[in-house]
Every structure is written in structure tokens, then in C-alpha cells.
Amino acid sequence: MDFLSVLRIGLQGLAVHKVRAALSMLGIIFGVASVVAVISVSEGARGEVLKQLAALGANNVIVRGIDWRADNTVAREKKKTARLRSDGLTVREADAVVSACDLFIAHAPMRKVFVPVRRGEATVSGDVVGTTPPFLQVMNFSLREGRWLNEADETVSRRVCVIEDAIRQEVFKTASAVGESLVIDQEPYVIVGVLESKVATDEKYDKADIKALNRRIYIPLSAALLRTTREPLSDEVHEVKFQVKPGLDIYSAEAYLSRFYETAHRMENVSKENRDYQVLVAQDLLKQVEESQKIFNIVMLCSAGISLLVGGIGIMNIMLANVTERRREVGIRRAVGATQPDILKQFLFESLIICTLGGVAGCILGVAFTFAVEHWTNWSTSLPWWGMFAAVGVSLLDGVCFGTFPAWKAAKLDPIEALRYE
Amino acid sequence: MIENGGLDMPRPIPLPDGHGAGDAVIEIRDIEKIYQLEGGPVHALKGISFTVRRGEFVSIMGQSGSGKSTLLHVLGCLHKASTGTFLLDGVDIAALDDEQLSRIRNEKVGMVFQKFNLLSQEDIVHNVALPLVYAHVPRHARLDLARGALELMGLGDRLHHKPTEISGGQSQRVAIARALVTEPALILADEPTGNLDSRTGEEIMGVFQALHRMGRTIVQVTHDREKAEYSQRIVHLKDGLIEKVETVERPRQAPIVQLGAKAKSLN
């Protein structure tokens, strides 16, 4: 039997009970729509993280002090214990790492300064960060206007700062903020440069620090150390970013840093969660995000799977009813020469038509859902071409899995018994 | 009298080449059919032998339970006999598997049923073309052949009617067209007038007689003596055995049916 004939017979078979066929499609439609939605939301999230990784510096290894300000007495106690072993992260030890090995091309220590920032009488919401000139290169940031902090600023702890574009827009509302000033911890700082704003951010990715990135005010590290109020027990620097040489394995650099800090902080016998620092690879942040994404994916895929299962059972049910109702037709076809494979093909094809139509409708619904998600929740989504194929493929698989039994039953009907059916 | 009944037609269906009346289309020897039922085996046919030659019009008669339906199913290759030999147009049916049997049904047997057995969702031209779908005939060719067969049956202007839109007599003509379309060696009819009034029944007998005159081999199964007398020979079955074979000296003659002309009952 040629393809067109099978198609024609299949469509005719379904046309007899249009509503029934449409209802049996619903399960498939919702199942495929969820598959499409899962793929597009998780791919969108992945794409977003990748973009942010680029912003963070995919080639960076970050050594971060455990945040003393964590609102947690246990953390505080741990910190106190750790202080008995080491002084926390320092500039000196970061410099020592870089000079002792040939793995890094640049490094930038960062000190977060928790002090009030004002413009005139108004409070400016921004995080003050002290850092060194290589920071711009390590982070691969670019300037919108003015200049970045230089060695001279660092040497004399000059009261200059570079702000993020978001702060310029909020505070100054003018095209240029260079030459203006901000009061940081009671001292005026002159703005010498404004950074380009970072990629669109999302609350989900606080871990990646992107949101905070757009709210930063950078001052020379020496100014941060000398001019601002320092808290007891606080590390000298909160974070050091090491930029790995291109072509080198980022994980061996990470291993080197881990060993170094372990020795320097005398933490060989201390378990990882009790140490006063952690070594992070930017790419690991992606893994963390993917890990949390995974739960969402599993839940959604389970619901998609259940929909497809229920849809498949619905199709099997409908097809079994079809086969029973159309036994006489099977008998007639067999009497005029249809073979068992011909009958099997005919009924299997009907299931496949239901599933294909359901799959396509599901894709459309899924895409609509994806747009709705993007529109209402601000999540970014992206639907790769393979997602569509996967969704329709899954629905076809559903058709084959659940359509074979009814089709086989039809094919195995005894022609005479079938012809006797009223 | 019948004059030129089957010959005056737009599309004559020729006899297969190289065969005149005389060679056997059906040759059965000691056919038995045993059904294994819950209550024990049932001997539906207990050893039947007869031959139908090409071009013959034969009736098989018997009361219900005589085994005539079983014999029809065996002759139509819908079931195989339990024992015995059955040569259909020279092919040994006993040796065939289910797929080959399907092919034989498609190529060598055209079945006409009491209840017409047309597919209600298809129009009549597609109903007639149905066997050609399974014979792998290309779409255009099969619609042409179906149209030809329907024109022969006088239904050339009803091609796209649904079976529900035509009368019983017309439905049976469609069924006959479907049986003819593959040019089978044998036309096998199961009580072909059982669902028709007597006038229409007679008309269908006229169609069979016209086909017979064209050289078609026809076997009909009937319980109606009068309808059996339209054929040349009657095989009487009783209790799964042949009771007697009767030659009809003067077959009944149905009113003239002009194949290819518009069917009378269309009006």
C-alpha cells in the first residue's frame, strides 16, 4: 500500500469521529507543549548564564573569603576559629601566588566596603568595591566614558571612583558623570570614569553576582583599605580574581590555588566547609545554576511524561474503540486482499496522524507558552530547532508505542469473524 | 431473449489470454474443514470434491448448516481447508501462508456479499478501486479501472456518491464492479440477492448472466432454488457432503441487462 493511500485512509478513518480524535489528541498536545516549554525555558536560562559567565570572565578562578557578615552565629564562630589559623585573604598572598607560578596573566583583589554613599543629601544605593588597576582586564569590562583606576591612584590612595552606568543614570541623569563627585564614608570621591552596563540581569542569578555588578562603585584598593572603616575580623580583601593564561586548563589552575591557600591558611586538616575561603571557577557557577535548573526540568519533564503517558493511553483507548467499531471494514479490506501488515499499517498510521497533529499543535501551544513566560516573568527563553524535533519525535514515539497494540489487534482479526460484525 | 447482452459495452473486460472454457478454475479434492470449538471439533465439510471450469456459472445450494458458507470461505481463500487439495486457477492453496492467501484473494477472487460490504466513508469509485490499492496499482490507473468497471455496471454517473446515497441494487452492482476490477479468475457471490427485492434480485442475476456470457467464471452460494436455476450447474450440499450435482438443462433467463448501459434501477 502506497504512502498516499495510507494517509488518505488514515485521515478518512479519523474524519468519521472528529471530536473523538480531537479529544484523544489533548493529552499529546499538553505533553508536547510541556516538553517544548521545558526545553525553551531551560535553554534560555542556560544561554543567560553563559552570557553572564562571559561577563564574569569564563577564564577566571575566584578565591573568595567566607562572608563574615553572614547573618549566622555559626558562621561567625567558624570565622573566629579560622582566624586563629590565618589572617584571611590578603593582597600579599595573592601577589605571592602570581609571582610563584606561571599560570596566571593577571589578578585583581577586591575589597567590599560596607559604608554609606551619598550624593548631596541623598543616599546612593551602591556597593563600594576597592580594587586594583588590572581588574578591568581580568573582568573584561569596558568603559563608557572617562578612565579606569590607575597605578597612581593606587599608590597615593587617591579619592577617585569609577561607577557603573546604572548609577550614573539613577543619580546624575545626565549624559556624563565624569568630574562629578560622591561622598563615600564621609569623604568626597571624584568620578573619573563610567563603565558600560552589564548584560540584562535576573534575580535568579544572584549567585553569579551579576545583579550586584551593575550597582558597584569602584575605588582604589589602597583607598578602601586606608580611608574607609574596617570591621574587626574582616579579611583584608574579600575576593581575588585570578585570570588563567589562555590555553591552560582552568581546573589545574584551580587545583594549584586550592593547594596554595590550603598551605598558606594552614587549613590542611580542616574540612572544606569550615575553611575561611573557597576557590571557585566561574564555570562552576554555571553548574550550580544548572543544578538548580535541573530540579525545575525534572518536575516539568515528569509532568510532560505523565501527560504523554496519559495521552498515549487515551490514543490506545480510542484506537481500540476504532478497531472494534470498524471490524467489518477490516473484514472487507482483508477479503479484497489486504494483508495483515496492510491493516497494521493503516491503524498505526491513524495513531501517528493523531500524534503528529497533536505534536504540531503542542509545539504551537508550547511556543505560545514560552512567549507568555518571557513576557510575564522576565525569564529569558530560547527554543532551539532540535527542541521542536524532539517534541514531535516524542509524540510520534507515543503514537508508535500506544498505537501498535490496537493496530496489531486489528491485523490479527479473523476476516470471516470481522465480516460478520454488525 | 437475451441478445448480445454482455457484448455491447464501452469497456469490455477480456478473458485472460490463452484460456478457453474448459480448464479448471476450481479443483477441489476431498476437502475437509474441522473447526475446533469449545464443545469439541465440528466437522463442517466432510470430504468434498468437485471442479469448476473456466467460464462456468455454478451455484452451491444447501440449507443452513449444510456447510455451504464454510465451502464459500474456503473457495474465497478466507480460510484454508483442514485437509484435501484445493487448486485455484492452478495455485495450490494449502501451501500458502496468510500473506500469500491475501494476495490470492486480491488477484484471483472477486467476492460479492449479501450485504454488499461497501465502505460507507468512501465514495463508490474508491470502493471499487479498493482491491487495486492492495494490488499496488498506481492511483490514476486504479481510478481509471474503477471508473471502467462502474461504467460497465451502468453507474458511470454515480462515481462520487457515497454507498448510503444509492439503492440496494446499485450497491450490489458497485460490489460486482469491485469484484471485477482486478479481473479475477473467479467471481464468488454469497447470497447476492439475499438483501434485494425480487425484481432487483432478478436484475442482479441478469448482470451475472451477462458477465457469464462474457466468459467470466462465477460461483454463487444460495439457499434459493429459483436463484440457483439462473446458473448452469447446481452443487447440492447436505451435512458437509455433496448430496448431488445437478445440471440445469434450461437455466432461467433474467431480463436483458445491457452492461455498460445506464442501470435501470437508477431511475
Mind explaining what this structure looks like?
The complex is a heterodimer of chains A (422) and B (267). Chain A is α+β, with helices and mostly antiparallel strands. Chain A has helices at residues 3-16, 18-56, 73-83, 91-100, 135-139, 151-155, 165-172, 210-213, 221-227, 250-264, 282-325, 327-335, 340-377, 385-411, 415-420, and strands at 60-65, 104-113, 117-119, 122-123, 127-131, 143-146, 160-164, 181-184, 187-195, 216-220, 239-244, 277-281. Chain A has 2 domains: 3-51 and 289-420, no CATH class; 59-282, no CATH class. In chain A, strand 8 and strand 9 (187-195) form a beta hairpin. Mean pLDDT of chain A is 84; it is low at 200-208. Chain B is an alpha/beta fold. Chain B has one domain (54-80, 97-266): Rossmann fold, CATH 3.40.50. Helix content of chain B is 29%, strand content 25%. In chain B, the strands form 2 sheets. Chain B has a 6-stranded mixed beta sheet with strand order 6-7-8-3-9-10, with helices on both faces. Chains A and B meet through helix 1, helix 12, helix 13 and helix 15 of A and helix 2 and helix 3 of B.
Secondary-structure map with pairings?
The complex is a heterodimer of chains A (about 425) and B (about 270).
Chain A: H1 3-16, H2 18-56, E1 60-65, H3 73-83, H4 91-100, E2 104-113, E3 117-119, E4 122-123, E5 127-131, H5 135-139, E6 143-146, H6 151-155, E7 160-164, H7 165-172, E8 181-184, E9 187-195, H8 210-213, E10 216-220, H9 221-227, E11 239-244, H10 250-264, E12 277-281, H11 282-325, H12 327-335, H13 340-377, H14 385-411, H15 415-420
Helix pairs in contact in A: 1-13, 2-11, 2-13, 2-14, 11-13, 11-14, 13-14
Chain B: E1 24-37, E2 40-53, E3 57-61, H1 68-75, E4 83-88, E5 91-92, H2 98-108, E6 109-112, H3 124-134, H4 139-152, H5 168-180, E7 186-190, H6 198-213, E8 218-222, H7 225-228, E9 233-238, E10 241-247
Parallel strand pairs in B: 3-8, 3-9, 6-7, 7-8
Antiparallel strand pairs in B: 1-2, 1-4, 4-5, 9-10
Helix pairs in contact in B: 3-4, 3-5, 4-5, 5-6
